[in-house]
Amino acid sequence: SHLRPPTSQMEEVSILRGSNCRAKGAAPGFKVAVLGASGGIGQPLSLLMKMNPLVSVLHLYDVVNTPGVTADISHMNTGAVVRGFLGQPQLENGLTGMDLVIIPAGIPRKPGMTRDDLFNINAGIVRTLCEGIAKCCPNAIVNVISNPVNSTVPIAAEVFKKAGTYDPKRLLGVTTLDVVRANTFVGEVLGLDPRDVNVPVVGGHAGVTILPLLSQVNPPCSFTPEEISYLTSRIQNGGTEVVEAKAGAGSATLSMAYAAAKFADACLRGLHGDAGIVECSYVDSQVTELPFFASKVRLGRSGIEEILPLGPLNEFERAGLEKAKKELSESIQKGVSFINK
Ligand code: NAD
Ligand code: LMR
User: Fold this and answer.
1) Distance from Cα 45 to the centre of ligand 1, integer Å
2) 210 Cα–ligand 2 center, Å
3) What is the pLDDT of residues 99-148, one digit of tens each?
């Protein structure tokens, strides 16, 4: 029911040994599935999840190339057992029993496109995958990466509502790359190690909906109006910067895999019971009047345990918030109508 490496010899050896040919030492841990595992994000993300000591089982699902990706990653001598699943008929086996499902499936942008231009294809992909999740692992934490995130998260919520499995605490849109970029660019301006910088980025994950709160940077600091204008624009257009540099060959994959692995690790540490895990994420929210909004959330054993308030915004950020809400509201509505049309 799933892909395995050519094993006849391995099985023979294992019968003689009376073992199951599995290396010992794999700590008990969480079961994680990557849907879209053969893609530009999926491959390095799967590699990073195979390196995560909290992962005991790693399922790699895609509609192409999972036999090769699985064989390759399965040779890494880390704890997680890797299994591959190819094509729709194997989706359900790939999802059964999962604690965390990460979704980077879908087409990426080319120069000149907005993330919303991906809606027509990616909305259907996310719907199908979420129908599988509702059926096979309704209690899993779901991390949605596929764009447009501002609409695909509402799509996932509507699919789960229809199936009667919706738990807003377990559905999270991945906006970590915006924070990763913001920390890098602010670190460059301030001359600080980017690992020591923390910039809250709220709103959503497209253009003006990406709202860095530069007044709340940690460590506390101040910027000139020119720096604020440069940083806000660079953070909001970080995705487009990569799309243009790749010149038709796709969008951010490597920095995204890093960001997704960082976010998934935070979700797993929360599930594990670690305290004080706070990340920005696009979630079902009451922080504004919109049904979904990205802000800091505290992660724990049940997924999102608390949505933190936005904190004090300056005048520039309040104006940005109004612009962000206008676009977000339309993107949310578009996602909701896609399922309920
Ligand atoms: P890619 O084309 O390299 O890979 C996508 C993978 O999805 C492919 O392997 C493809 O076979 C697979 N796929 C397609 N249909 C599928 C289905 N029905 N089920 C399972 N897998 C399926 O693209 P990429 O560069 O990896 O980007 C993937 C998505 O992530 C895009 O929508 C992109 O816009 C988005 N993205 C989001 C962020 C973010 O910050 N949230 C950042 C970067 C990219
Ligand atoms: C990003 O921010 O890099 C992603 O959303 C991909 C894109 O299309 O920009």
Assistant:
1) 12
2) 11
3) 999 999 999 999 999 999 999 999 999 999 999 999 999 999 999 999 99
Distance (Å, rounded) from C-alpha 194 to C-alpha 217? 12
Judge residue 309's burial from the number of C-beta atoms within 10 Å of its C-beta, 0-12 exposed, 13-18 middle, 19 or more buried: exposed
> ipTM of this predicted complex?
0.99
CA nearest 290: which of 200, 208, 204?
204
Q: What pTM was computed for the model?
A: 0.96
The closest residue, in CA terms, to atom 5 on ligand 1 is 39
Cα separation of 54 and 263, whole Å?
13
pLDDT tens digits along 290-318:
999 999 999 999 999 999 999 999 999 99
pLDDT tens by residue, 219-241: 999 999 999 999 999 999 999 99
Place of tokens 């849907």: 35
30 φ, ψ (degrees, to nearest 5):
-100, 155
What is the distance between the terminal CA atoms of the chain, rounded to a whole angstrom? 35
Please give the distance, rounded to the nearest whole angstrom, from the Cα atom of residue 7 to the centre of ligand 1.
30
Q: Which atom of ligand 1 is nearest to the CA of 118?
A: 32
> Which residue out of 61, 118, 142, 145 has the highest number of ligand 1 atoms within 8 Å of its CB and is therefore the one to mutate?
145
Ligand 2 binding pocket includes 207 (Cβ within 6 Å): no
Residue 252 Cβ inside 6 Å of ligand 2? The answer reads yes
